[in-house]
Each structure stands twice: as C-alpha cells, then as structure tokens.
Specification:
Radius of gyration: 20 Å
Distance between the termini: 40 Å
Strand order of the largest sheet: 3-2-1-4-5-6-7
Order of helices and strands: EHEEHEHEHEHEHHEHEHEHEHEEHHH
Shape: globular
Helix content: 25-40%
CATH topology of the largest domain: Rossmann fold
Length: about 375
C-alpha cells in the first residue's frame, strides 16, 4: 500500500530549498506525494512565489491573507492557518508530513500534525539564530517531530541533547547547498536582461530581514547609508521575510532604489536567478541565512550584519559585523580586498554533504511509518 507524504511550504525560503527533494519524492512509486503551499506564496507584496512553483504534482493551496506585519496580525494569521490546515490534512490523513526550518507558518503546521497524530520529518533542526523568534520555534518543532534531518554533526548533537533518539537523527547536509551543485546558471547577458540592470565594476546582492527578538528592530538605515557611499557598484535587493518590521524595511529599500539608478528591488528572484547573481556578483550582504549556508559554496564573500544569525556555524567566507556604518564600511572594504578574495579560493562549506536529498529519500523508504508517532525522551548519560 502506498504511503501518503505531504511536503509543506509557507514561503519562498522553504520551497526553493526543498525543490530538489520534492522532485525526487514525486518520482517514487511507493509514495503518494502532495505539496501543500500556504503563507507568502500567495502574497503579491512578497513576490507571489506560487507562480514560480513547478506544477507537475498534486498541490494543495491554503490561501490566507495577511493585513500587516504586526505581531498581533501574525498571531491572527497563525490561528486562521491552524483552522484551515487542520481541516485539509484531516481529509487526506497523510502518513507523514515533511517540513523545513523555523518559520511561524511551519510551527503552526507542526502543532496541527502533532495533535492529529500525523508524524513529522523536520529538516534543519538543531541550528541557532539568537536574533530571531524563529530560534525558539525551530527547537519547538524539533520536540514535535519524529524524524530529524540536520545539516552538520554539531546540530545532530544538539538535537540529541534536546532528548531525541540518535536513531531518529540523520546528518544529511544542506538541501540548499546541494541545489547550488545542480543549478543551471544564467550567462551574464541573460542575467542582465532578466534583472534589467547592466553589471557594474562591482555588484552586491542584498537581503535584510527584521531582527524579531531585539527590544528595538535593527534598522536597515546603517546599511543603506554605507551602500550610498560606494562608487561603480550595483545593488540588487530582495525582499525580507514576513516578520514584524518587514514592511518598513521594504519602504526604505524602495526609497533608496528611487534615488539610486544603480539599484533594483525584486520581491523574489527565484532560485536560478538568485544563484546566478551570486556567481556573477562580488558578494552578498545582509542578515539572511543564505549568505551563511549556500553562498560559501561559490567561494564568494558574505557580510552578515547584526545578531539575527548569531549562533550559526560560519565558514571563513562570512564577515560578521555590527549594525552600524563604521562596522559595515570596514566589512565592505574587506569584502572587496585582494587578500580576502585570494583566501576565498581555499574556503570549505561546512554545510555540504554529498547526496543530501537522496539520503533523505533513502531513510524515508526504510522507515516503518506506523511506529513514528510514539517516541520517548532520551536523557544524556
């Protein structure tokens, strides 16, 4: 009898990481595969990324509006998602759901699945991002899940430390890094046509998210002030996640773009275009996990601003700096320096492991689904 597997995605961040795994799962005859999309996939302000999803498999759509990025409205969104998702998943009653990361949309889904006794396979547990409330949600999802696919040995140890059985934790590496190895990059002329911007002497890719655990959100102003000082440099901005403070960040980016003809803003570039930019650009700057996890595979430098990603494992290609102009100016100087660029050639990505999606699929093929809902807390000796 075929096993029903749902993969859930609430944003571009998860979908483009999961895409290669999704394609593999869809080809396995012993699985009935469904992709469930919700959250910002259906919001125009954040790129309407549903339009970028390949439609060669069954898709469940759970559309919910989000009036603003306030904390109160996000809670309302979560309650609406819980009601609609629980109704949809109860109809189909899958044998397993697969979720990735730490977003509040995914946390909401995990709560529903746990109460409905549907086993959860969680990808990218055990990581730390001290500057975002995603950090607590990620750890909570770990405790709601039965299977754990982590990206490094350190994160594997941390999930075990949280009381999870070693036999349920698998170090498979990063799906995002695997995607880098498989992507078909755009050539320079095609890229320039797509982004409607001719490449300059220097080019930077920028993504800046709100810092949701600080008393006051870290402002994007110091970054924009530092960028405005640079000459012969293009700036390509992508949209932040839907977190408290994201709308204000988008407004300031759009204002900057209007004043600076050497800059563009795109709510969502999509995986091929994003990675093609990374390959041809001089570096990435902001506070996105992509600059830490995927970008090091290009042997390109990343500037990580502030505390949002504090606690992650960093490669030598990542320049950590404070969120002030002086620190950002210094980091930009380092990013463009010949010495730093030379050292990047020897850089190794700690998140890389061969055959990530294949290893996940192999585990899913072997497990006995009916035993998954029941687990014990494992104390450390």
């Amino acid at each position: 009898m075929k096993k029903k597997i749902w993969v859930i995605s609430g944003s571009r961040a998860e979908y483009f990481l999961l895409e290669n795994l999704i394609n593999k799962l869809n080809k396995i005859k012993k699985f009935d595969f469904v992709l469930c999309l919700t959250g910002s996939h259906f919001l125009k302000k954040y790129g309407y990324t549903f339009s970028q999803v390949k439609k060669n498999f069954i898709i469940k759509k759970i559309k919910i509006g989000l009036e603003s990025d306030s904390r109160e409205k996000i809670i309302v969104f979560m309650s609406q998602l819980m009601r609609k998702f629980s109704k949809e998943i109860s109809k189909d009653n899958p044998d397993l759901i697969i979720i990735l990361g730490d977003r509040y949309e995914i946390f909401t889904v995990a709560i529903c699945a746990m109460i409905l006794k549907i086993p959860i396979a969680h990808i990218q547990g055990g990581e730390i991002t001290e500057g975002a409330f995603d950090d607590s949600m990620r750890h909570a999802i770990t405790k709601l899940s039965q299977l754990h696919f982590v990206t490094t040995e350190e994160y594997k140890k941390r999930v075990h430390q949280m009381g999870e059985d070693k036999k349920s934790i698998f170090n498979v590496g990063s799906l995002g890094v695997e995607n880098v190895k498989k992507i078909k990059f755009l050539k320079k002329k095609n890229l320039e046509k797509k982004i409607k911007l001719k490449l300059n002497k220097r080019n930077l890719l920028i993504t800046f998210h709100p810092v949701t655990l600080n008393k006051h959100n870290e402002s994007i102003d110091p970054l924009l002030n530092s960028l405005a000082k640079l000459k012969n440099t293009n700036f390509l901005f992508t949209s932040p996640n839907i977190d408290p403070g994201s709308i204000e960040i988008i407004k300031k980016i759009k204002k900057f773009v209007l004043k600076n003809k050497n800059s563009k803003f795109y709510p969502s570039l999509g995986q091929q275009l994003y990675f093609s930019c990374v390959k041809l650009f001089d570096g990435v700057i902001g506070n996105s996990s992509s600059g830490i996890i995927e970008v090091p595979s290009f042997n390109k430098g990343s500037i990580n601003i502030g505390i949002r990603q504090k606690g992650r494992i960093f490669s030598k290609s990542v320049i950590n700096c404070e969120n002030n102009e002086l620190s950002i100016d210094f980091s930009l100087k380092k990013l463009f320096s010949k010495k730093f660029k030379k050292n990047l050639k020897k850089n190794k990505n700690p998140y890389y492991k061969k055959g990530t999606s294949k290893n996940i699929v192999n585990v899913l093929k072997k497990i006995t689904f009916k035993d998954l809902p029941y687990k014990s807390f494992y104390d450390l000796n």
